[in-house]
Amino acid sequence: MANLQCPYCYRNFTTVVNAPQVQCPHCGNIVNTGMGYQQQPNQQQPQYAYGQPAGGTAPGSGKDHIVGGVLCLLLGGFGIHYFYCGKVAGGLICLLLTFLSCGIWGVLLLVQGIMMLTMSQEDFDRKYVYSSSTFPLF
């Protein structure tokens, strides 16, 4: 049994397969296990909806950092940007903080929205979509 971290989506997973490469259960990319065996010539590559990703990179999350940043700037007080990223608990926490602070929490959300707009798509995916954090800030 081996504990591995996918170099594409940065998620951890466990495998019991004793092979040089295994498929990540989260993103479907092939991950080297370091076992040192020869790769089977008929090993099937993962199938993606739009073909193989360019450059061998992981497929995107489908969540655009521009959309997330605009949602944060316009409707951040309601936690819409967290709901968009799949962080339901983070959206509820954001909504609660907005009501408890009478809207002052929105000032920090303006900064967060600007940061979302200026970061790369890969950084956005890693920090807000694939992160195991319930409430990722800045």
Structure explained in plain terms:
The protein has about 140 residues and is α+β, with helices and mostly antiparallel strands. It has two domains: about 60 residues, no CATH class; about 60 residues, no CATH class. Helix content is about 40%, strand content about 10%. The protein has five helices and four strands; from the N terminus they run ββββααααα. It has a two-stranded antiparallel ribbon. Strands 3-4 form a two-stranded antiparallel ribbon. Helix 1 runs antiparallel to helix 4. The two termini are about 35 Å apart. About 5% of the residues have low confidence.
Distance between the termini: 36 Å
Percent in strands: 5-15%
**Low-confidence segments, ≥5 residues, pLDDT <50?**
48-57
The number of distinct β-strands equals: 4
Radius of gyration: 19 Å
Query: Globular, elongated, flat, extended or rod-shaped: what is the shape?
Result: elongated
Mean pLDDT: 81
Q: Please estimate the helix content.
A: 25-40%
Secondary-structure class: alpha+beta
- How many helices? 5
Strand order of the largest sheet: 1-2
SSE string, helices as H and strands as E: EEEEHHHHH
Task: Please tell me the total number of domains.
Answer: 2
The largest sheet is: 2 strands, antiparallel
